[in-house]
Amino acid sequence: MTVSFESTVSIAASPERVFQAMTDLEGARHWMKGLVRIEPLQAGPLRQGARWRETRKMMGHEATEEFEVTALEAPGRISLFCDGTKGTSGKGEYRFDYEITPDGSGSKIRMRGSITMPGFFAKLFGRLFVGMFRSLCTKDLLSMKAHLEGSRGA
Question: Which of 40, 57, 78, 124 is most buried, most CB within 10 Å of its CB?
Fold first, then answer.
């Protein structure tokens, strides 16, 4: 079963600044709530094919997932894939596509996500699960917005 979700946030920062913040794995600690650590799985700048492990504290527990960049087009698009079998969730596929466009004097980020889960559990809890993911993804975007708008002079 595949479920999809979407979220849009406007940020008073240029698409270039938003793209830079979203692709700076080291800098994510400044705005990503619950982040414990990010471990790049190869050296060098973020690029298509790059992978990392991301550990967050969620609901009182640490959860680690492995992400891969499937598209990277500065400053307008970032796509990520997460194979749940390589992380704490143990199953499923997660896809996140971020489109960054100019919006007045700032930017708009449109995030589209999809989750593919096997089995009866997905059919039973799929809609609840997708609501939780939409909320978490939106909170990340709002945290980045607060960080960028709060440090405009930096």
Answer: 78
Q: What is the rounded (10 degree) CA torsion for 13, 43, 113, 146?
A: -30
User: What CATH number does residue 36 fall under?
Assistant: 3.30.530.20
Q: Mention every residue, 6+ apart, whose C-beta is less than 8 A from residue 148.
A: 11, 12, 13, 17, 18, 21, 31
Q: How far apart are CA 78 and CA 61, in angstroms?
A: 28
Domain assignment of residue 98, given as a range: 2-150
pLDDT digits (tens, 9 = 90+) for 27-43: 999 999 999 999 999 99
Q: How many domains does the structure of the chain reveal?
A: 1
Quick: pLDDT tens for 143-152. 999 999 995 4
